[in-house]
Amino acid sequence: MKHWHCMVLAMTLFSSQASHSASFYEQLQAVELGDTHFDAQGHVTTTGDIDRKVACLRPMRKGLPNISAESVGEQVRVHLYGHGGSGWTLLWGSVNKAVALFEEKAKEHKFNELVPITIIGAGCMGKAVALSLYHTGFQNIRIIAEQDDSIASLNSTGYLAMVSLATENESEKKQAEKLAIDTLKGYQMVEKGTHPIINEGVHLIDVYSGLGKEGEEGPLETYTGIEPYAEAGLLPKPENGVVKFSTGVSYPMRKYQTYFMDTKVLMKAFDRELKARNIPVIHETVGSLEDIKTYVVFNCSGLGAAKLNHDEKVYPNLGLLLELAHQPLKKLDYIIYTRYQPPGAPKRVSPVDKADIYFMPRSGGLLGATFVDHNDGTDNALNEALFTRILRENKQFFGYPLN
Question: Are 368 and 337 in contact (CB under 8 A)?
Answer without folding.
Answer: no
